[in-house]
Amino acid sequence: MSELTSLTLAEALRGLSEKRVSSVEITQAHLVAIEAARGLNAFVLETPDQALAMARASDERIARGEAGPLEGAPLGIKDLFCTKGVRSTAGSKILGDFKPPYESTVTANLWRDGAVMLGKLNMDEFAMGSSNETSAFGPVVNPWKSRGSNQPLTPGGSSGGSAAAVAADLVLGATATDTGGSIRQPASLTGTVGVKPTYGRCSRWGVVAFASSLDQAGPIAKTVEDAAIMLASMSGHDPKDSTSLPMEVPDFRSFVGRSIRGLRIGVPKEYRADGMPPEIDALWEQGVAWLRDAGCEIVDVSLPHTKYALPAYYIIAPAEASSNLARYDGMRYGARVDGPNLTDVYEGTRADGFGEEVKRRILIGTYVLSAGYYDAYYIKALKVRRRIADDFTQAFDKVDALLTPTAPSAAFALGNKSADPIAMYLNDIFTVTVNLAGLPGMSVPGGLDASGLPLGLQVITRPLDEATMFSVASVLERAAGFGAKPLRWW
Ligand code: GLN
Questions:
Q1: What is the pLDDT of residues 142-176, one digit of tens each?
Q2: DSSP letters along 172-212, please?
Q3: Fold for the domain defined by 2-260+462-480
């Protein structure tokens, strides 16, 4: 098997189980690719020794006929997931050299199923951002470039390292998390597939918390099938997370490639952002045409509270973050700045350890939760959240799935929006609604814009109906025939 890094996860698993390739060989090939791609800054920690040890153990299990569903497949892990004994930073300086004494449930599930860890992937600090530029480790560079330009572009965020690593063939797949779009938007900007499952499908235990009522883990992968394979391993009930759903995990992969004839697809008219490039509108229409050709009935729907989603999200997420991040005080773990008294230690540690965007969120969150403003901001935002969820419930009375663009732009230049937080927040306009309502949503590559950059389409379904989402996405994937890969410049 040549070009081991260009295999999909499904192809690699087949090669491994048929013993045409060993896990050590495939892992080694990825380690070489990672080393050659350091210019992308996708990894904050490479774990080659651990990877090879895990690969050898996988090869032994394969030889004994004890292979798990992901046996021998090398993956990357977003650095928001705690990994036992392996530095986990959440993209922040404040965690210092923190080596968790435990493993997150999602990563434990992957290792249980035989996956191999290549290392920890770069991300926006505490997953706050849409461009990977808030990372304490510096931005990730998108493997894609505009045709004829050398300008470095963002891979999106906050799971920018995960998306870039998958797009550049450094990993067979990656874990990611999505609080307001951090799986789907980077997938859209890098020509990869990103799945945010229903809230509660994946355990949040051991995932550094940003906004607990919105955070969900999911995969970024090369294909819809690969994403389905990964999600099946990542999901499942976990008594250690009280919001984890006590549900069976469906065989997501079996829904890939199924006929969607007769499904009703909703097109929400509010998902048209001001100043959105006409190409994104055109791709959306193309997506609608593909689904019509596949036998779907297209229905216009309205999600009237969409325009309040970003303001509500940017109150609720910082409110929860301000409370979740109170634990970083320099006392028990992570970085610490010493001082003459307790308050000085707190202040010094937090002033030094958190970056600008994280401080902004903590300030906003503390403000909207403070006594005089709680009702006016936080409670109001919760009411808006309910209306947004109700919009979806009503739409799903009429349709089985919704089709929208994933993001209002293709990959933009690093530095282009980092000085203007509002411009950055606007990039989440089509993704935050899904988190506010707890729904499954995924991004699938639909095509390239005029400058050769990938654009994604988003499929949204009812809670717990990832099955339909995978079927619709796989039809779009096939129709788009998106085989494009970034030209290798790194
Ligand atoms: N870009 C959004 C934010 O900054 C979403 C981030 C995420 O999903 N983690 O909050």
A1: 999 999 999 999 999 999 999 999 999 999 999 99
A2: SEEEEEESSSTTHHHHHHHT-EEEE--TTSS--TTBPPSST
A3: Amidase signature (AS) enzymes (3.90.1300)
